[in-house]
Amino acid sequence: MQVVNNLAALIKVKTIVTLVVIGVFAYLALRGAISADNVMVIVTAVVSFYFGTQHEKNGQLTMDN
Predict the structure, then answer these.
(1) Cα 36-38-40 angle, rounded to 5 deg
(2) Exposure string (b/e) for 22-46, b if CB count within 10 Å is 16 or more?
(3) What's the pLDDT at 36?
(4) For the chain, how far is it from start to end, CA to CA, in angstroms?
(5) Cβ(46)–Cβ(23) under 8 Å?
(6) For a disulfide at 29, which of 12, 20, 35, 39, Cβ 3.0-4.6 Å?
(7) What pLDDT score was predicted for residue 55?
(8) Global pTM?
């Protein structure tokens, strides 16, 4: 049952957007359209935002209970 809950949690808009952004910029870097440094900055910003909002959300849940 835990596996099903984890899969359901994975399929959220923020998760999908994060994975798509990382995939697009990785693809562009591999093709040579943009430099690896640009990809690193963008991916770091996106991942930091994603995990920051997840951490904040989890913090609010524990504070409310």
Answers:
(1) 70
(2) beebeeebeeeeeeeeebeebbeeb
(3) 79
(4) 23
(5) no
(6) 39
(7) 66
(8) 0.55
d(CA 2, CA 61) in angstroms, rounded, equals 19
pLDDT in tens, 48-64: 887 787 666 666 555 44
Contacts of 35 (CB under 8 A, 6+ apart): 29
Domain ranges of the chain: 2-64
Helices (H), 1-65: 2-10, 13-31, 36-64
pLDDT tens for each residue of 3-24: 877 777 767 777 788 788 888 8
